[in-house]
Amino acid sequence: MNKKFKECLTEVYLGEQAGEMIFESLLTTAEDDNQRYIFSNMLQLETEGKAIMRPLLVKLGIPIEENKLLRDQGLQIAESFKEMSFKEQFENIYQSVKNYYLPQYEELSTLVDEEDSEAYYIANFMGEHERSILLAADNIIKDKQDPVKPIRDLLKFPI
Fold first, then answer.
1. 74: which of 26, 68, 96, 142 lies 20 to 30 Å off by Cα?
2. How high is the pLDDT of residue 77?
3. Contacts for 85-93: CB closer than 8 Å, 24+ residues apart
4. Dist CA 19 CA 84 (whole Å)
5. HSE on the CB side for 147, CA within 13 Å?
6. Distance CA 70, CA 13 (A)
7. Model confidence band, residue 156 (pLDDT cutoffs 50, 70, 90)
8. Which residue has the higher pLDDT, 116 or 38?
């Protein structure tokens, strides 16, 4: 496994940790059942993303324990979101995913060979994972019906 793939995989895993902290914290601020449902599905996706990655991380000798600094940063981000409206939160999430996280997650699939089936599967899944957050955020911004369907379709244990 090449060094660049390991580095990118580590960053993606840390992104999942941060996302989990953000959505867990935002869940506590949900104003109604719809918001609770949306944040719960996003939290579930981040949790499942971490779980899917862990066997490969361990195999590659990459630490899987929670990064305290990153958790604190995730909580700080979530705290800043609490001053925003629900729609503004998702406009911010949309921009963050589009401009930062999605390119990083998609890069992962360019760094692995198809012959390494486990790494190839995870790399492609994580790109799909991040695209589903982008689509769900866009759906929420545009007030579409069933906005988290792209996320729910990926979940092994849907809410």
1. 142
2. 81
3. 86/31, 86/35, 86/140, 87/140, 87/141, 89/26, 90/137, 90/140, 90/141, 91/137, 91/141, 93/133, 93/137
4. 17
5. 21
6. 11
7. very high
8. 38
List Cβ<8 Å contacts ≥24 apart for 146-155: 147/38, 148/37, 148/38, 148/41, 148/42, 151/41, 151/42, 151/44, 151/45, 152/41, 154/45, 154/48, 154/125, 154/128, 154/129, 155/41, 155/44, 155/45, 155/48
- pLDDT range class, residue 76, cuts 50, 70, 90: confident
- Tokens 């705290």 — which residue? 79
